[in-house]
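Give me structure tokens for this 367-residue protein.
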Amino acid sequence: MDLLQQARCEIDAIDAEMAALFERRMQAVANVARYKAETGKPVFDAVREAAVLEKNTARLQDAALRPYYRAFLEEAMAVSRAYQRVMLGRDTAAYQGVEGAWSHIALRRLFPFSRQLSFATWGEVFDAVERGDAQFGVLPFENSNAGDVSTVLDLLYTHPDLIVSRMCDMPIRQDLLGVPGATLAGVHTVVSHPQALAQSGVFLQQHGFATRPWSNTADAARHVAECNDPGVAAIASAETADLYGLQILAAGVNADGDNTTRFIVIERSPEPPVMTGAGQRLALLFTARHKPGQLAAVLDHIGARGFNMECIKSRPLPHVPFEYYFYVQLVCPAGSTGTECQALLDTLRTACSTLRLLGAFTLDAQA
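Here you go.
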């Protein structure tokens, strides 16, 4: 038996042990879920999970393996949370659009075990979460090319009982999709969302295709599948091709390879977000007094305490003409704690007219 075969045999034996341990772990997770059902406690406990990660990662003797083990534990805890949500009936997630839309794709990656609810508008997603019909809502928040989704930001402002519990970035790759048997040479018309058509403008011009705008990329793919015309193609995702039985005629037709959409997860929470410090982002909504220097004073407080401001956005204040509210996203300093985050908020409350902690979360690099 050579070295590779020996290693594979050892891995098989370890995997068998891990399968038994996994069942034991999930049985314990079920007991945790029963306790949370009785007490009404939330599934996610940021402080507890941070402590578990630190304690267990420190147990490894090989320091080089610690970041990999930490990632392994994070995945294990994500699976545990998903199982608890199913047991507690808190596994429903809502999105806007149709199957195959980017919000649906993001939802499936973030909540692969969830029950999925589709709504026609972003506002309906917010309302479903607010009513409790859905535990989570997955919504686009910002695009690296097109900027922020202002409507979603305004909905966050007008739904004070909802928080942002998670944020993730998802690279957007658009493909040209056609019916089985179609060829690139035989295509004459391309349908898709106007933004997808614009981002693929160079490709479309090179081939001289006529274009037709559509409500969204997924529905464009559905239309192509239904009309079954090899001369009509859609710009949409590879996941959408699988969903509607289409084939990829050309991959990555959007010109900007760095096209990324940032999605947020909203949920209803009776308690404010838990701040743990280092590694977190803090999302704040605030209004400043309508006097010279007031906004600058708020930003000075943020910088003085070592919090890096990743972004700032302003939007019209509802029902107050020509005044504005602000959204800022902060990165907690290395080594900071929840106490230091709270001290920042206490300081900002003295400088702001209103202040709301919208979310405290880690940013997932990719959904």
